[in-house]
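Weekly modeling sync, notes
Attendees: AB, CL, MP (scribe)

Item 1: holo prediction request
CL wants a bound-state model with adenosine monophosphate before deciding which constructs to order. AB pointed out that an apo prediction alone won't tell us much about the pocket. Agreed to run with the ligand included and paste results into these notes for async review.

Input as submitted:
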Amino acid sequence: MTIGVVGAGQLGRMLALAGYPLGLDFLFLDKEARTPAAQLAPSLTGEFTDARLLAQLAERSEVITFDWENVSVAALEKLRGARIAPPLAALATAQDRLEEKRLFEKLGIATTRCAAADSLEDLHDAARSIGLPGMLKTRRMGYDGKGQVAIRTAGQLEAAWQQLQGAPLLYEELVPFDYEVSVIGARSTRGQIAIYPLNRNQHVDGILRLTRAPWREPRLQAAAARALRKVLQHFEYAGVLTIEFFVRRGRLIANEMAPRVHNSGHWTIEGAVTSQFENHLRAILGWPLGDTRALGHSAMLNLIGVMPDRHALLGVPGLFLHDYGKSPRPGRKLGHCTVVETTALARDKRAAKLAKVIESRKIRS
Ligand code: AMP
């Protein structure tokens, strides 16, 4: 049985790695021929909007899924008769930050205050009504902090506008958050839901650096799971869905959702009974979902820009290394590593040490 995946990055690669033991095969579609997933599985090369290639993918696959949320909804909609999961309605909502926030509001999920900024005048109005400081963001195609400008004073509004104008924009309040968390869960085509323990995430320059899980805050866990269930049920969702939140004064404020497996869930490969990747596959195929319980206390650190020395990393006892096979580039996610400990304290100490190893042992090219 073949799973067709639009996008062949590291998420697709890890989906394939999780799917092979279940007896699944994979076929990818990506703009580039040399991708992390194409190192493992056959891959069609062409635009995500290429109707002929998408039709080929559909013909050869039991179900089509995607590993990136900026694939073309319009092109996928044209695939008559193909099974696509997660649902395209969820994909379309996640592609537009404003739609996403309106959905959170509709479902009673607390989110950041924001407004569309279609002109410089709108932006001034939004900053007046929502207040400063704030963020100007592109509504679409934003990820890893791309397409965002922080604004502290009214005098900075015009420069921010000049920087991002041309694309639909939104202005939102800057949340002075205490920390950030995310929740990941799956809903199967049969309606079964399974939710992972909460992840605590640290970003640098908008890019995830460190995830620690489980983050044991029972009240937050319950609130995050409630929010996730609402979104899963709203879309009659199939697959894995992630919501990222700011935590401020013990309350969750939803930032964004991703209709896919997520970087903050990579620890589940070694640190949970069933990984997010395996559960995504089980969910889209209508198979029973796997146990989402944590096996210990995990820390996941991203390897960004340059790969650290492999000997230094593998010399750390109990470290799990994932190298995505990508060429180095500043800001690019090249791999990640995970450690699983028996206590949260031991995990936090390991994570701090590991961050130092990663920083000091980078190979400068
Ligand atoms: P995003 O692409 O929206 O997930 O933003 C990436 C990161 O930028 C977030 O994880 C936050 O660390 C930061 N960020 C984004 N929006 C806001 C906001 N409204 N207030 C404070 N920090 C933000």
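Recorded for review: Residues 218-234 form the longest helix (17 residues).
Action items: CL to compare against the apo run; MP to circulate these notes.
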